Known about the structure:
Oligomer: single chain
Strand content: 15-25%
Structural class: alpha/beta
Largest sheet: 7 strands, antiparallel
Order of helices and strands: EHHHEEEEEHEEHEHEEHEHHE
Amino acid sequence: MKALNFGGGAVELPTIRRIKSSHDEDISPAQHPFRRYAAGPSTSSSNTALYALGAAALGGGGYYYYSSARSKPKPESVAPPTSSEQETIPSNTSPSASALQAATSRAFTGGDQGFISLKLDSVEILNHNTKRFRFALPSSDDVSGLQIASALLTRFKGSEMDKPVVRPYTPTSDEDQKGYIDLVVKKYADGPMSRHLHDMVPGQRLDFKGPIPKYRWEPNKHKHIALIAGGSGITPMYQLARAIFKNPDDKTKVTLVFGNVTEEDILLKSEFEHLENTYPNRFRAFYVLEKPPQSWRQGSGYISKELLQTVLPEPKEEGFKAFVCGPPGMYRAVSGTKKSPQEQGELTGILKELGYTADQVYKF
């Protein structure tokens, strides 16, 4: 286990390059001895003390889960869909769906709708292995029909495949956005769907089905939530955080703990920085890199027991919920894996060791 070094500082999001489209369209503070929320806008050094407090213990407390040869992750199979999962797609939207969706045509209605084909409108390169894919909905007046939190199934069958590949993805576009959905997808060597998506060009089509319900969110359902994510597991976390801060009636406090391999791998960082600067009393983000650059001033290493103990509220805090999503190794280290797409499975790992209960944890 490599040593973990902590400091404080701001990080810039890597430059984004865009491939033109086919249309050329241009918390009160948590009651924890180390955890506090800023009284004003977030600064680059706001997390320095928090990281420093855990530095001594963190040197031996990290978990290796991003590139372990002993347990090679299968990134696209964090919560693999099954026929039984597909049967859980509802025939109607939940009562908490937005008023706009209720008054607008929904592209995805669930039930017996089946898969629908969407055309890839544009592709945006985000980093060395991640792209944003924009798919046009059947009508420019359509919204997706997704609720918070839910996902979509994607499907394709290559000419030499015996059966189609089906994978779930959480769109990063707003649920009320008309005309399109966005997917942010990291390419994996052992991920047939991610490889297929990265080979697609505007004008080609992909099959989608949904929505697949995950965790039904209602404003102020919890007083404080933690989003513990690794790699591309950030997308359902962003969906949830965006919905919370979009709603002026939702006063939920949010703490994000996000682990990645390199600085360039941090997805949606500018979006989270915007939330942190806009809602400094309610949103805080902590980033951990396995391979940080010399200039990196936040967490180095892996999400560990000591880090979570430092930045999360104590288990006894009323109204707290932790959400976990990432590679299989991260699940094993932080919360334990899911038993099935529908069953959460036993709570194990760091969160159990810290005293949190199964009712306080949800695994995407």
